[in-house]
Amino acid sequence: MTERGGDGPTPDFADDTVSRRYRDLADDGSPGRLDRQIRTEARGAVRGPAWQRPLAVAATLALAAAIVLEVTGPRHDAAREEAPAVAPATIGDRGRGLPAPELTPEVEPESAPAAGNVSRFASPAALAPPSGVARKSEMAHDEGVSAEESVSVGAETPAPYEARGANGSSPCASERDSPAAWLECIEKLAAAGDDMAASAERRALAERYPEAAASPD
Amino acid sequence: MSESQAISPACRLKYTEAMVPGDPDVRLMLRYRDGDVAAFDALYARHKDGLYRYLLGLTLDRDTAEDLFQEAWSKVIAARRRYRPSARFSTYLYRVAHHCFVDHYRRRRTRGREEDAGVAGLIAPEGNPAAETERAQARAHLQRLLGELPAEQRDAFLLREEGGLGLAEIAEVTGVGAETAKSRLRYAYRKLREGFAALAPDRGGNADD
């Protein structure tokens, strides 16, 4: 029994004799069966409902699987690569009939002023030496597209990877100041299976450091 | 309340904790609220028997008392996240139990079971009287005496004896004024004293100390 609150020893309305007699005869207490039930309920309330744990585990597993699939599965960029980046009509109107080189970097006129880092990522070719245009021309030729086509089509079809660079999220953004580091980053991309990003980085590298890109391996 | 007078929840909690600084049960309940199951075990051990006897004395029926006992603790458990100490824990616990009993009583009344106000009909049978011990008979007599008390007097008496509540706390739990609570207690003690005295000759003088 708990201590009484604030009435003093024995107030005038109470009677110690009655209290003693009552306590002597009162029942023993709660049955053990009830005690176990209530204690179990109290523990369960702290842990949460029984269905919450398996649900939490299942949700965690599902999330982990989704992340793994996102990282290792076919990339969205690859899907875009297969689809024409620009409506074929745009190219068809020019009478070329050639697939759009989706990753063609955006080339700005040489007279374009060099801007800050963000604009560099947006158009790495803008900062590339003039010889980079020549290199670009070679690469475009390898793909069966003239440099002029490449530049003009590329200007109309901003490649997804380059767009990522514009947001500052290029995987090799921080290595672009050093050809060696940039190449290493490209190799890592290739090793990770991100061929599209690696290819785009190689092109950007080729434009900026043509001598380094000559032998990427 | 103006903006400047607004009290943050943390401040309010500190205030209410300061209101009942000496109540270890409040600290146990706060620990349980924060996930400490051992604190609940300690709290439960301190109050389980008193609360059970309170409900048994109030209902005079073991099954009903067990149901209400479980219901009361379940409510305390379910409300643990909302628990804010505004009074001693025993006041809080017995208020919950009191409301469980009142709700139960109302439910039975709506079903037409008026015998709750009566006495003998709710006293659980104790088996073969011839085989009962003297203590068991005395216990049955106590139950009968309790049952003869009006429910509100019985409630006040049990809140004091089992819950250890003071006059103001009994008044708060039962929702009456302090004078009314005091009057109920006075009548309850007097009737029980008379009842025990009446029992004494049958017990060879053992019943009255």
What features would you highlight for this structure?
heterodimer, A: 217 residues, mainly alpha, B: 209 residues, 9 helices, 67% helix, 0% strand, disordered N terminus
Give an overview in words.
- The complex is a heterodimer of chains A (217) and B (209).
- Chain A contains 12 helices and no strands.
- With 217 residues, chain A is mainly alpha-helical.
- The longest helix of chain A is centred in the N-terminal third of the chain and has 21 residues, at 52-72.
- Chain B has 209 residues and is an all-alpha fold.
- Chain B contains 9 helices and no strands.
- Chain B starts with 8 loop residues before the first helix and ends in a 10-residue tail after the last helix.
- The interface between A and B is large, with 36 and 54 residues.
As residue ranges, the low-confidence spans of chain A are 85-160
> How many H/I helical runs of chain B?
9
Quaternary structure: heterodimer
Order of SSEs of chain A: HHHHHHHHHHHH
Strand fraction of chain B equals: under 5%
Give the biggest beta sheet of chain A: none
Mean pLDDT across the residues of chain A is 64
Q: How much beta of chain A, percentage-wise?
A: under 5%
Q: Count the E strands of chain A.
A: 0
The string of secondary-structure elements of chain B, in order, is HHHHHHHHH
Chain pair with largest interface: A-B, 36 and 54 residues
